[in-house]
Write a structure and sequence with these properties.
The chain is globular. It is an alpha/beta fold and 271 residues long. Helix 2 packs across helix 3 and helix 4 runs parallel beside helix 6. 21% of the residues lie in helices and 25% in strands.
Amino acid sequence: MILCQISDLHIKPGRRLAYGIVDTAAMLEQCVRAILDLAQPPDAVIATGDLVDLGRPEEYGLLRELLAPVPMPLYLLPGNHDERSSLRASFPEHGYLRQWQPFVQYAIEDHPVRLVALDTVVPGRGDGALCRERLDWLDRCLSEQPRRPTIVALHHPPFATGIGHMDRIGLAGADGLRDVIERHPQVERLIAGHLHRPITVRFGGTVASTCPSPAHQVALDLAHDAADDFVLEPPAYQLHLWTGGSLVTHTAYVGEFAGPFPFRENGRLID
């Protein structure tokens, strides 16, 4: 199984540029084309939050158009820039968005790896939270299938990254999440967004990671007082490959690059 993760799309109304610079709509179009051109197409795609920039219906309408070419199952998760009711109204055929109210939390059972999504949104705030109600739901959900390999997806990563301004809008309730995950060793990975960078850490007896954005990236500045800046590093997405009982993650960059070039000619390394 191959699960493709995209995150932090930040689609603006009328294809406006994010921060007056970033053409997030065009960059998502390029990302979708890159995914569809893969030699091994993913079995499913998950978008882990900040789907749009202001949570407006017109932004979700544009998001629908941009994601329409994706033929495989597509799963959406809100981030701190999203608005739950507008998301649900704009994607009425995505029944999983209404598995549980009021939060957008769901379990997908259709693939070799179970996919469980958590809602970390606190309306009107940049930081996120996992309250007791959300964590109890996760504990019950994971207890239902203790032997099935599972990926848990959320927007806010449950760990500090060292990038000061992003850690200040991190996740409250991460210790409670760690306690739940430690009780369920079938969780192969926690995948998150929010950071616009690929980051990996041990968490709760498993691995937690974040996905870069198909648009702009947060500047890599590991300081408590890091400036609140972004950079136009290469846009990217991730592929999570379940094979041989292990989950292997690849970060794939979007763009035109020279190659591929052969290492060998007539069976011998080129020197």
